[in-house]
Design a protein that fits this description.
Elements lengths: L15 E5 L2 H14 L5 E5 L6 H11 L17 E5 L3 E6 L6 H7 L10 E5 L12 E8 H4 L14 E8 L1 H11 L6 E2 L1
Parallel strand pairs: 2-5, 2-6, 4-5
Antiparallel strand pairs: 1-7, 1-8, 3-4, 6-7
Length: about 190
């Protein structure tokens, strides 16, 4: 039997779940997070194809004050790494098309995680060894996929998302706590 998941500080990891009913709320939650990011931060996004990872990242871009706001952020599916300059330097890494740790290592992503950039990594579950011990894991899925027990009628709105923050480290626990206090477009649960 294993004990509860703990982070680099030895603290129990507490998940915080938000429900965003619209694309605008998903971007809004990302924007709130982007306003709090600073160089050296790592956000690891996990979710299926079409889950809303890029939409959430667009919100982060708006919060990081990229010159064109959320319009600056596109899915880098064929260009794996996009660098953005705003209030903070932000790198958007998409690992979707990579299949092996060797392919990920070949990108040189580790250089972005050394403190000069805030990094947002889509499909982060494809390269768990890449992530620093302290990071914010964000899991995004359609509401119908994250209902407890999946009981009851499904929601009619296909844009509704469950966004789960799993903080690893003191800084990310603080960020998650501040976001869950209700100062975002999403609804904490």
């Amino acid at each position: 039997m294993t004990g509860p998941l703990t982070d680099a500080d030895g603290q129990k990891v507490k998940n915080i779940l938000f429900t965003c009913k619209t694309t605008a709320q998903t971007r809004g939650l990302g924007r709130q997070l982007g306003m709090m990011l600073r160089p050296g931060d790592t956000v690891a996004l996990v979710g299926g194809l079409g889950a809303g990872k890029t939409t959430f990242t667009q919100g982060i871009g708006a919060g990081a004050q990229l010159p064109r706001g959320h319009a600056s952020v596109r899915s880098p599916s064929f260009v794996f790494v996009h660098e953005h300059r705003g209030r903070i330097p932000l790198v958007h890494i998409d690992l979707y098309r990579l299949e092996t740790p060797a392919e990920v290592a070949g990108l040189g992503c580790e250089d972005y995680l050394l403190g000069d950039w805030a990094a947002v990594i889509e499909w982060a579950d494809r390269a768990p060894g890449l992530l620093p011990a302290e990071h914010l894991r964000v899991e995004i899925e359609p509401v119908n996929d994250c209902r407890p027990g999946r009981a009851g009628p499904p929601t009619a709105d296909r844009r509704a998302r469950c966004i789960r923050f799993i903080p690893h480290g003191r800084r990310y626990r603080r960020i998650s706590s501040q976001l869950s206090s209700g100062r975002t477009g999403g609804t904490p649960q």
